[in-house]
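User: Please predict the structure of the protein below. I'd like the answer in structure-token form so I can feed it into my own downstream comparison script.

Assistant: Understood. Taking the following sequence of 253 residues as input:
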Amino acid sequence: MTESPWYVEAFRSDYRDVYSHRNLEAARSEVRWLTEDVLAGVSGRVLDDCCGFGRHSVALRERGIDALGIDLSFDLLASSGSLAEESKVAHELRGRLAQADMRRLPFRSGMFGAVVNLFTSFGYLGEKGDAQALSEMGRVLAPGGLLVMDLMNPSAIRRGLVPSSKEEREGVILEAERSLEDGGRRVVKSVRLTFPSGEVREWREDVRMFEPEEIQGRLAALGIAVERVAGDFTGRPFAAGDAERQIVVGRKA
């Protein structure tokens, strides 16, 4: 049998144990910036592209925004029910989260006033697949609509890469080994989770990083002009040397 791609194996339900700090509370803070401070603000019908378990979709809907989400991981989508314990609007996501491949979005062209792609959800699919995914974001975006991509800052990653780490989170031991490949363009991480029961799960992540001028050039080719690049979700201006993130905000012509 053909081995599944890493991004299928990685994003199982226990992925949330690794990134437990990526929760609804954090999403609310990030969405506040997206809706209030990002240029004219994300509004209209919004696609949460690679939504995981839907935390940003919920945070958007709490602000009255018509958000829909897609993700390839059925496990993460199925765990979205846990959000009902934290938000009164979580039930509104019923029928608005769908399993889909970002390379083939199941929506008509120009359907969304904004598309958001958050928490390093781009750069997984190889050169051809990444190009297809980016093209699809542009296709479903309405003229004048905003695209927001939350990417790694390659310079900061290369400078501060921690080769190995081990920590315990709520009884789960998380071990990670990290390296750079492809001339420093890709960051590769081997992850090992050991659960209190003794069960072990391992996977390997492999994410392509994009320099600011590179992602801006690719978006320009799709008719999307970058209007702002922020270094974090407070809107701090991007500086390649020390920015925490590379949050690219583009507008479709």
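That's the full token string. The CA atoms of residues 188 and 206 lie 4 Å apart.
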